[in-house]
Amino acid sequence: MPTDLTIRAVTPRDYERWLPLWDGYNAFYGRSGPTALPEAVTAMTWSRFFDAYEPVHALVAESNGELLGLAHYLYHRTTTAIAPLCYLNDLFTTEAARGKGVGRALIEAVYDAARRAGSPRVYWLTHETNTTAQALYDKLADKSGFIVYRRPM
Predict the structure, then answer these.
(1) Going by C-beta distance under 8 Å and a sequence separation of 6 or more, which residues neighbour residue 71?
(2) For residue 127, which phi and psi values (nearest 5 degrees)?
(3) Angle at 92 between CA 89 and CA 96, to 5 degrees
(4) How far apart are CA 56 and CA 48, in angstroms?
(5) Interval 63-110: pLDDT, tens
(6) According to the model, what pLDDT value does residue 24 have?
(7) Least C-beta-crowded within 10 Å: which of 24, 82, 88, 130?
(8) Within 13 Å and on the Cβ side, how many CA atoms surround 100?
(9) Are the CB atoms for 97 and 66 separated by under 8 Å?
């Protein structure tokens, strides 16, 4: 892990450095070029981080003034607990930062935020082909055994 790594909340001044991470995350999941998210989605996502009425939060990993990764998470109600659950929606590190503890540090920071918020659980999804990330995730959490179904509307 970079010795001067800082995990912190994103600030409005971070947009130009956050955007390449966001674009990289989306490209990793096939959302680039003709399948890229509309700019309005990116703009709304960014604005939600700074809207006190939104349950969406963003962290960045920074080293030597460079952003190496991001984590976006949100809280939501559930029928199985009183306190809201924490969903780690997006996690991404630059290719150069992979395998250096940046992803782990971001996940641990989300765990800390969830603890402070009184959330009983942090959970996330990854694609079944993302075996590199799963090697880390298997060390930090348990697989739930659930299968995700979805249908576009």
Answers:
(1) 58, 59, 60, 88, 90, 91, 106, 107, 109, 110
(2) -75, 145
(3) 175
(4) 6
(5) 999 999 999 999 999 999 999 999 999 999 999 999 999 999 999 999
(6) 96
(7) 82
(8) 18
(9) no
Q: What is the CA radius of gyration of the chain?
A: 15
In the chain, the amino acid numbered 90 is D
Q: Which amino acid is at 147?
A: I
- Residues 58, 10: contact at Cβ < 8 Å? yes
What is the SS3 assignment for the chain?
A: CCCCCEEEECCHHHHHHHHHHHHHHHHHCCCCHHHCCCHHHHHHHHHHCCCCCCCEEEEEEEECCEEEEEEEEEEECCCCCCCCEEEEEEEEECHHHCCCCHHHHHHHHHHHHHHHHCCCCEECCCCCCCHHHHHHHHHHCCCCCCCCCCCCC
Distance of CA 115 to the CA centre of its chain: 17
pTM above 0.85, yes or no: yes
Sign of CA dihedral 41, 42, 45, 47: negative
